[in-house]
Design goal:
By secondary structure, this protein is α/β, with parallel strands linked by helices. 30% of the residues lie in helices and 24% in strands. It has 14 helices and 20 strands. The strands form six sheets. It has a six-stranded parallel sheet.
Amino acid sequence: MFDLKYGKQLLQLDPGDLPSPPTILNRDEPPGASDEAEAVQDALAHPIGSPHLGELVSPSDRVVIVVPDLTRAAKSNVVLGALLNELHAAGVSDGSITILFALGMHSPNSKAEKQQIVGRAIASRIRLIDHDARDPQQNVVLGKTSYGTEVAVNRVAAESDKVIVTGTIGYHLFAGFGGGRKSIFPGVAGAKGILTNHMLPLTTVETGCHPAVGPGRLDGNPVHLDMVEAANMVKPCFLVNTVVNSKKKLVRVFAGDLHAAFEEGCRFFDRRYCIRTDRKADFVIASCGGYPKDINLIQTHKTIDYAMRAVREGGVLLVLGACARGLGNDTFLDWFRYDTEEEFAKGLKATYLKGGMNAQTAYLLYAKTRQATIVLFSGLPASAVQRMGMIPVNRLDKALGIVRKELGPDFETHILPHGGYFRVEVE
């Protein structure tokens, strides 16, 4: 039997139910560092493309450290401990330091969540601020990028003497990778600019999605390049980014120049989290890897995107995503009101600033349902799954019955057991 994670439980698949042995698309993750604090200190001692942090700050500087929220497992408490030691050694006092949470358009942190992110000791002595993308009084406009995106950023960061960004590197559906410049934009940016940037995959092309947009892609990616331009307006002086594995263990730390250190971290991550195969399959079974990667449909869509690359056109993709918290956005389902992909794209582009953060995700899912049959094993209402163009199931034997009906008795199968962590590349 083969165990596949689904929410907080395991589902068992009998390989004997398949017409031939499946190909398992998986690889071992890098292990965690034996001493996390030492790993951060070592990265600070060997900055990439930058002088040491102590050489970049002075005792009179007002310093802002940008930190991600709980949706990013970045090991912020460990990183902050080492950063504060460096700043203190350079003569910067606690009273001159502010920690700014890069919420983008996420909900604000509770007091308990702030303490969980940075640690109680740091929370008790350092000023903590939540960014609010929707508050025009909190943000100051710095200009526009060459893509026409308005760059408004948190006033505390804009008016500080030095900005340090922290975060974690992982795949991102549109920006290629999370981390780096994303801590600034969209992390501490205004809502209007964030929405414009997130629609660039569609607004930069006549039809479909820009070909350079996708997980693991930076070269020519308009979303990434727009973020870089925006972040450069803030001029962060230093970056510390982590790579954290699925067991929440710190694997590696990259510190130094905002772009050079980030890009080296991206190369490291992609070498270890990209699964390469020489062919697409008729049928792909993809588990998100369980909770929280399948906490809602929007998170589950990331696995659909990664796994879809391994399915031949006209094939079948079975996705295991519990979606215990529903769709992930109250307006997500409303977008599935169009009869064709062209109508959807036209409607989306006409209203993208009002479309909300996940409108483009809805469009990409809609397009995928036209490329292959998607069967979703989830806790979502069947009517919602059907409206999104997918086939709902709640039993594996029923799913396999649908596959046989679609593909016949003989088909090739790939299994992606940790689809929320690894992307697939067909060579």
